[in-house]
Amino acid sequence: MKVLIAGGSGYIGSTVASACLDAGICPVILDSLVTGRREFAAGREFYEGDIADGPLVDRIFAEHRDIDAVIHCAALKVVSDSVADPMGYYRANVTKSLDFAAHLLRNVCRRLIFSSSAAIYRASADLTVDEESPLDPQSPYARTKAACEAMFADIAAAQPIRVLSLRYFNPIGADPKMRTGLQLALPTHALGKMIQAQRQGVPFLVTGTDYPTRDGSGIRDYIHVWDLATAHVAALGRFDALPGPATAINLGTGRGTTVRELADAFNRMADRPIRVREAGRRPGDVVGAYTRIGRAERLLGWRAQYDIADGIRHSLQWAAIRDEILSDDDVARVQRTSSPER
Ligand SMILES: NC(=O)c1ccc[n+]([C@@H]2O[C@H](COP(=O)([O-])OP(=O)(O)OC[C@H]3O[C@@H](n4cnc5c(N)ncnc54)[C@H](O)[C@@H]3O)[C@@H](O)[C@H]2O)c1
Q1: DSSP state of 85
Q2: What DSSP character marks residue 298?
Q3: Model-level pTM greater than 0.85?
C-alpha cells in the first residue's frame, strides 16, 4: 500500500509516516516546509511544495500511480496567529484544502483522511465530548477545521471520494524510536512549558485555577503522538468499511488530565522536579475536554496504548536530542510559525 501524506514533514505527519513505514505502507510526502522540517523527510519519498499546486500534485500521482489514499495534515495551527490573521488562516487551511480536493479528484483519489481537531467542540458541563456533541469552534483556527470538515463532507456526498475526519485531542510525546518529535525549540503547550521551566530552573505557571474541574486547573485529553499515528494506520486498513461517504472519529485516550496532575506526573518522571506556581487565565484559554471513546474502538479497532508517563518520558527524551537532530539555522522562523495548537 502507498499513501500520500500532505504535511508529512510536520510533527504529526512525520510520525504518521514512520508508523506507515513500520507497518509496511510506503509514505510519499508532500510538504511546503512552511513549518515542517526537511530532516523529518530524510530518506523518504519527498516532494517540496504546496497542496494547492495542481501541476505538482499531478506529477506526484503520475510518478506514483499506486497511491491508495491521502492523509491531509497540512495546515497552520497557531490559535493566536489565526486571531491576528484570519484571512491568512482561511486561505491557508480552507482555500488551499479546496484546491487540494480538486487536484485529488482529478487524479482519481478515492480515500481522504483529514487531520481535524477536538477544538471544534462546544465545552460540555461534564467535560466530555463524543462525535455527536455540538460543535462550537472558538477561534478562527478551529473554525477553519470545522469548515474543512463540512466542505469535505459536501464534496464526498457529491463526488466519488470518501473522507474520514480524525479529530485529534492534545498530542504529546515523540516517536518512541526518536526519529521525529516536536520541531519547536520552545513549545508553548503545558508539557513544553514544564520542560522549559525545568531547564531554566524557574517555576511552572498553572494558568487558570478557577475552572470547574476537580482541582481548578484546565483539563485535557493528552494523547501520545505515536498512538495518533497508529490510528491512521488502522484507519487505512479499515477505510473501505467505514459507514458513510464522510465519517468523523475522535482520537483521544478517554481520560482527562488536569494541568496540576500533568505537573505531578512530570515530577514523578523527571530527574529534577519543577516548582509549580498559580497564575491567572490567559486570553483565549478554555477549560478543555476529554473524549468519550467508543467510535474509534468500534470503527478502527484502535485504542490508545501509551499513558501520560510515556508521553512525558518520550517528550523529555526528544527534548534532550532535538538540537542534535535539527539544525537551528531557522529556529526563529519555526518558533514564530509553529507553536502547538492549544
Ligand atoms: N498539534 C496539535 O496540537 C494538533 C491538534 C489537533 C489537530 N492538529 C492538526 O494536525 C495537523 C498536523 O499538525 P502538526 O502539529 O503536525 O503541525 P505542524 O506545523 O508540525 O505540521 C504541519 C505540516 O504541514 C505543512 N504545510 C502547511 N501548509 C502547507 C501547504 N499549504 N502545503 C504543503 N504543506 C503544508 C507544514 O510545513 C508542516 O510540515 C494540522 O492539520 C493541525 O491542524 C494538530
Answers
A1: -
A2: I
A3: yes
